[in-house]
Amino acid sequence: xxxxxxxxxxxxxxxIANTAAVLGLSLGNQIEPVIGPAIPDADGREHAGIxxxxxxxxxxxxAEIQALRESLYDxxxxxxxxxxFSSVAQxxxxxxxxxxxxxxxxxxxxxxxxxCLFGPEPxxxxxxGNMRLLR
Length: 135
What we know:
Layout: E1 2-7, H1 13-30, E2 39-40, E3 46-47, E4 57-59, H2 62-71, E5 81-86, H3 87-91, H4 95-103, E6 112-119, H5 121-128
Parallel strand pairs: 1-4
Antiparallel strand pairs: 1-6, 2-3, 5-6
Pfam families: DUF2000 (PF09391)
């Protein structure tokens, strides 16, 4: 299993952080077990579990993210899971608002700020191998 996030580097830093946080939280709901168990330190204080897998954050333009997102509807990519975060989601004040707004938006209306891909490593590498780390 490989996981990557692709985020538009032109976004303001706070929105990049928010996009990564939303994608990460959503990922934790999609695949088990991503989060390891709580771990005690040498003093016996417990620390909440964190992800047990590396999640690189890659840089991709909105156009690249859009094209990749659209390509994932192809049956050849059925083994690749995707979580997207769009401007519709970012503007929404509640999940109900997001649900209504998304239901009224066609795929061409969505501007993706970032996406998270997870699945077989060879497929993820083929889809994202030419993309650089977000810096």
